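Field reference: sequence -> structure
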Amino acid sequence: MQFPSRVRKGVTTPQMELYGQPLQFYGQPPLENISLSEFETFAVERVKLLKTVENLGVSYVKLSDDYKKKLESELRNLDFPYRPDGNERKLQGKLTEYEKRRKDHISHFILRLAYCQTEDLRRWFIQQEVDLFRFRFNNLGREKLDILHRNNLNYDRIAVEEKKAMLDELVKSSYAVSGITVEDQDFYKVPFQDALDLVRTRRVYLKAGYVYIPHQDIVTIALNDFRTKLSKALALTARSLPAVHSDERLQPLLNHLSHAYMGQDYSIQKNVGKISLEQIDPLSGKSFPLCMRQLHQALRENHHLRHGGRMQYGLFLKGIGLSLEQALQFWRAEFIRGKVDADKFDKAYAYSIRHMFGKEGKRTDYTPYSCMKVILSNPPSQGDHHGCPFRHSDPELLKQKLQVYKVSPSGINQILELVEGMHYQLACQKYFELTHNIEDTTFSLNHPNQYFIESQKVLGGGKDTKRETDAAQRSQEESAVGASTAAPEAAANASQRSDEMSEELDPFFHNDA
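Structure field:
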């Protein structure tokens, strides 16, 4: 039996030195072995943290008092480092500062594996990590310069005499700096190519190829370096994915983290048949998310949808309560109004609808698409109407569509700002607020069927729907417990862990951030 040895006092290991720093640029990957259980826990909790960073960045002014208070609270709740001067006193049920920094380090690299797979995933991951880094860096005091030096950003403070000699230039060129504040804070001499953002916005004094940056703006240099290094690292990580995916324990977990919807899948509904075909048209204008509203409109206008649109819209209708018989009737009635006769419909299209309901082929009971799946998979091409309008539509066309749906000009501007920042689900949530005349939603939107249920609740018709879907969720969980599988044991365990991961994240994503 092997016992871990205790490190002698005064002896430091590379890992101890790494976790002795209050902030990391994540330049060194973790080298230790960890259990699969710890791997999953760290990954799930960092996803929760980054999701909170995203939501707070839209709901509050970044680095405002409310923003900092809520983000610090989430860091504390999830046992991540949140104060640079954290001590080693271990509270009951809590991690020491060393353990928090270890968790932060390892969880970052785990999510690199999950979020390096596509350009959209990389963009989202980089943005949230940069925002988190900004928050932590601004919490540092005099450690900032030491952190920069440790990461090969060797900028030094200018001497007091040099600062006095260029006092007028520093006051005129530096943002929110006066003669008094120039004397009170440090300035750094930095090659101009390392501070292009500040040069572009004319916020620094430029002389002989160097810029003079006040202490309050040195974060810009750190953020640029952090973003550049992380972007390159994700590209390198993507090249290693084939080797990672060959491990059948990890592949399902990583795919689940990056692509799968973490919450209720709306595959089982107790209100099947309680929505009549006559209700679909009025409901589409009141309670359908924009993606489904545009699919319904395209179907009514063209009397046809391509396969991607039929799958996305058909599964959504199934999720809100349409039975198989109703679905066949609905699609047949619409298609035969176009160029498809009843005989051709029965031969070419009816099978796919029955297949969607698990009555043909492998008899898989397909689940409605989540927002993440709609956004990230199968982008629409010419002639298609599926996908996410906030992600896949041209901004000008999206603006025209919102005008047609009577969204106010100020509301349209808010939505377009979110779209420009690639916050597609938050843009949809803003659309919900504007079309339902509410100031703030009490949920985080990540599923079109969730949008429908929340809309019905707001409009006064959702109590039964909510109760039935909650019962459906319990039914799903009970079914999952008793399900058997013929897959290899390792893959089955990984799949089960993915389900458990989903259950753990479900309450988080259904609460207001």
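Note: Confidence is low (pLDDT under 50) at residues 1-9, 464-488, 505-513.
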